[in-house]
Amino acid sequence: MSTIIVCTDFSKTSRNALAYTCNFIKDKAVGQEVELLLLHIFTIPANYSGEGLSIITINDEWNDAEIQMQEELDWVKENYPGIRIKERIKKGFLLDSLLDQIKEVQPALIVIGASGNFGDMWSWDKDILDLLRDATVPVLTVPPQVSFRTMHNIGYACNLQNVTPATPFETIKNLVHLSNATLHVLTVNTPQLKKIGCEQKETLVHERLKEVAPQYHVVEETHVVETIGHFVQQQRIDLLLVTPKRHGVWEALFRKSYTKELMRLNSIPIMALHGK
Domains (ranges, CATH) in the chain? Predict the structure, then answer.
């Protein structure tokens, strides 16, 4: 049985991400094959002094978290009775705690509610940005205004410069098979790529993905983020896949200067995939 970790801070954004995940499982009729782990990371404030009053406050907040967690579980059981779900509250910091849970649980996916719009990525918590780039399992971010809809078109923003045999092609194909969606692969030819040449890497992508018969879109463009936004709208993409690196296209997504361009992505979830 596969496990999906859904992170919650008990906000409306987290509830929306939980609903999205439940509806995806229900839509694909995989309820008996998947178990949700609803995870809350309880972080003790940095100014915690260890004094009596502070200990009482921390205990009260922990008790509140347990009550809110039970409310989330009751909501799932009432609205999605066929879904397997359990809860866990862990003390610690977000990134460290999640990395520990990845090692322990070995989930198939982590789901988090996007903090604000994708156009505000530059202001997101650093731990979330590091998780998107460095986690060893896929991480799905769900914007607060997005509701689940059956997936017809999955987009893969493919940076040929970073393609290797370790690129998670199997994960991409599994998603396409599970959703029965059409895969659209977008490659952007920039002046830098023309200089280094990516013919072999392009051949690798075509070879590894041929069984799902993708539609390929190649554009000549220097404004990469804006191009991805247009691609998502024109092809009616329901889910965008990216393979983040600390340098290159994904890094550009975190620049404040791209706020307006990224607003085009607020209508879809983005899944960060990671090679081995």
Answer: 2-113 (3.40.50.620), 153-272 (3.40.50.620)
